Amino acid sequence: MKPRVAIVVQRWAPDMAGGSEALAWQYAELLADAFEVELLTSTARDYVSWAGVFPEGAQASGRVVVRRFAPAFTRGAYFFALHARALGDWRPHEPASERARTVWTSALQEELIKFQGPWCPGLLDHLEAHADAYAAIVLTTYLYPTSYFAARRLPRHKLLLAPTLHDEAMAYLPAFARYRERIGRFLWLTDAERALAGRLWGVDAGEVVGMAIDAKTAAPAESDGPYLLYCGRLDAQKGTDRLLDAFASYRALHPERRLKLVLTGSDALGLRATPGVEFLGFVDEARKLALMAGAAAFVQPSRYESFSIVTLEAMAQGTPILVNAECEVLAEHARRSGAGFAFRGEDELHRAIDAVLALDADARAELGRRGRDYVHTRYGRERVRDALVAEVRAVAGA
Fold this sequence. Notes:
The protein contains 16 helices and 14 strands. The chain is α/β, with parallel strands linked by helices.
């Protein structure tokens, strides 16, 4: 009989294409050859309310058993008040104030983490009751109580954590630095993520496992002119408001270029009709890859990325990338691959757009080759699977 492994994630559904949800599912599938795998998650679909929509209980999904547990409550005004206070007191790149150190006791920090949700007592009770049945338990993403409180209640030697850490205010809470004492092995997506954990949490151990990028080469989408592409959530936290402003000013400076900005995904900004901006909403995988293959460049304006699947998918299509240099992970992708440009602010983004539009066929092909090589070498499926299985076996063997 194969050893049993649990993977814990705050929410999951088959159509969740990005983030820790996609990472958890991919890890479950990659481990299924060597282990019996269970995915433990909530009954919630959305991360704003954590309202339960899926039925509780266990159900097979392919080779993985998915076990769902109901949140005890949805988010309310209490959480949002605590969260606003935390954002004011714990600011990235700034030392903690005396007020923050005094007010934010361990109990208050854990109150914030708990009420952030999803708070699933049944999930934690299940893990505690069946800890001996699992050879290893993989926690995905550091932020939520499904990971934090599991790490408090379970044996350290059984635990692996894929933090999906990025430079945000919540990561500065001292409570999260306790992961270094409670986790047996860390699984990092990039070197930059591991370096950030070293600065914030004093963690310098763990392997860079990454995430497999399976994007197959697509035929470029047809277009009546050059376009920039962004795929994902249209949200101020993702920097898309600043991208829209920068694009509008670029188009005003260069109307003769007839450049377009094509956006796919969900709209949390309330996008208005804007000259040169085309919002397609959700598109299927084939359409997304075709749009990537045909774009003059793929733009990722977010400061808060721990990996950015879509950026790497675009690189796998041979498309130059324009990424926010304030995000160390994205800057690392651009620097190490040599397949694009990192920008700080609107003026540098304008110059980066000029640079990609000026590429001749040979220079563009070279950038494309570098991007594809970077993705296939670092994030090929076999390499990621072998590294992940080795890490889980090391825990299961112990």
